[in-house]
Amino acid sequence: MVGQPRLFDIDERLKDLSAKGDDLERLNAIVDFELFRPNLEHAVPRSDRVKGGRPPYDKVLMFRVFILQASHSLSDERTEYLIKDRLSFMRFLGLTLADRVPDANSIWNFREALTMALIDGVPAIEALFRRFDVALTKAGLIAMSGQIIDATIVAAPKQRNTAAEKKAIKEGGIPEDWKAKPARLRQKSRYARWTVKFTKPSPPRMEQSASISRSPPLATRTISAPTAPLA
After folding, report:
1. Cβ-proximal residues to 190 (8 Å cutoff; 6+ apart), any chain
2. pTM of the model
3. By the 8 A CB rule, do 83 and 102 touch?
4. Bigger pLDDT: 229 or 80?
5. d(CA 171, CA 4)
6. Interval 149-195: pLDDT, tens
7. Cα Rg for the chain, rounded, in angstroms?
8. CA distance 57 to 111
9. Residue 183 or 36, more confident
10. 8 A C-beta contact, residue 101 and residue 83
11. C-alpha 102: how far from its chain's center?
């Protein structure tokens, strides 16, 4: 017989997870994620909310989301689902059942913003993960005996490019019309390639790779790269 939910059931379940060994709880205890806030605030300035709209998600929270993605090799959609589904993910992010969960579009947009921004001459997201690497190393959590590389293929945004634009992209360039429109350029993927799924060509996709230390299973970085083109 299924029992009735009680007030402290979630707390009891979280205690059980801790007793079993929650790596994310351990990570929270050894890494001060607030150290990343100044760089995050600099890379993604606070937007002007004169026009209203929902308040943005906390930037440190969003960086924690990227850590989850890298550690578990998750697409944006799957990340949104698992944050809602897993108590351990919610605890790592500091969320309760009543809090808003970042949706896939918000995750994508924040990653794009960090990719476009620079810190010390390199993409902000790369600089932040390097600093995360340093924090893990100081805590003695990066295995020195090699890495496990995992990858998933996630669909890239649908592209509606002209023949001239496709030609420029294939040659490794940027279409002239895009150069004059930075907002449009940010919405275009120049690296996705067609791949094969069930013997039929599928829309352009990006390969998302995660480099994960063998023990403990914590990611050190994520890389998005085009899949191999069709032969």
Report:
1. 169, 174
2. 0.59
3. yes
4. 80
5. 63
6. 444 445 555 667 788 887 877 777 787 777 777 666 666 666 555 55
7. 20
8. 13
9. 36
10. yes
11. 11
> Of 154, 226, 167, which is closest to residue 193 (Cα–Cα)?
226
Total residues belonging to the chain:
231
Residue 176, pLDDT score: 76
> d(Cα 193, Cα 2) in Å, to the nearest integer?
50
Per-position b or e across 207-224, b if 16+ CB within 10 A of its CB = bbbbbbbeeeebbbbbeb
Instruction: Write down the domain spans for the chain.
Output: 9-47+54-145
Residue type, 19: A
Residue 39 falls in which region: left (phi positive, over 0), alpha (psi -120 to 50) or beta: alpha
The pLDDT value recorded for residue 7 is: 54
pLDDT above 60: residue 148: no
**What pLDDT was estimated at residue 147?**
38
SS3 per-residue string spanning the chain: CCCCCCCCHHHHHHHHHHHHCCHHHHHHHHCCHHHHHHHHHHHCCCCCCCCCCCCCCCHHHHHHHHHHHHHHCCCHHHHHHHHHHCHHHHHHHCCCCCCCCCCHHHHHHHHHHHHHCEECCEEHHHHHHHHHHHHHHHCCCCCCCCEEEEEEEEECCCCCCCHHHHHHHHCCCCCHHHHCCHHHHHCCCCCCEEEEECCEEEEEEEEEEEEEECCCCCEEEEEEEECCCCC
Write the CB contacts of 105 (distance below 8 Å, at least 6 apart in sequence).
Answer: 76
Which tokens in the block code for residue 31?
């890494």
